[in-house]
Write a structure and sequence with these properties.
Strand order of the largest sheet: 1-2-3-4-5
Number of domains: 1
Strand content: 25-35%
Radius of gyration: 12 Å
Order of helices and strands: EEEEHHE
Structural class: alpha+beta
Largest sheet: 5 strands, antiparallel
Shape: globular
Distance between the termini: 35 Å
């Protein structure tokens, strides 16, 4: 954890590298592709269920991806 206002967690996943959860209920996800997305108004219970999920990628796709307003922060780098 970086401070009391956010939680940073490296996760074991083939899709997601790490997540940061802010005190404003913003979930920031860093993907292995290099892309970074922010999801807004995510309840802490969703974060807790995500972190407990056996498959982080499956949980993300089913319960987060299209369920909350989002913003791409960083696009993945182009593939060569």
């Amino acid at each position: 954890m970086t401070d009391r206002s956010s939680t940073d967690v490296v996760v074991e996943s083939s899709l997601i590298r790490s997540v940061t959860y802010g005190s404003d209920a913003t979930l920031t996800i860093l993907f292995h592709s290099g892309a970074v997305y922010r999801y807004f108004t995510v309840p802490r219970t969703i974060l807790e269920a995500f972190l407990a999920a056996t498959s982080k990628g499956t949980y993300f796709n089913r319960h987060i991806r299209n369920a909350f307003p989002s913003q791409r922060v960083i696009a993945p780098p182009p593939r060569l």
